[in-house]
Amino acid sequence: MELSVNLVCPCNGRAYGCEKLLKAHHKTKIHKNWESQQLQKDIHIKINRLEIENDQLKRINAILVERIELLTGETKKLKVN
Ligand SMILES: [Zn+2]
User: Fold this and answer.
1) pTM, rounded to two decimals
2) Where are the domains of the chain?
3) Of the candidates 10, 16, 19, which has an alpha carbon nearest to the alpha carbon of residue 37?
4) How far is the CA of 62 from the centre of ligand 1 (A)?
């Protein structure tokens, strides 16, 4: 039955007989701690993604700065000649 699947809490894998029992479980310290740990994991994953994105942007920025310097140098050469 699909309804009973919804009454299983992912923190402990236990099935609760009715929604009221599941809601009561959600208020327990064990569940709150689990929720907090999940949140910390999510934040950690997001931080890692942002660090990777930041590294990629730094590399792109370095390439762009290099190209600008190259173009600026070419322009100066053209002005001299
Ligand atoms: Zn739980």
Assistant:
1) 0.65
2) 7-80
3) 10
4) 47
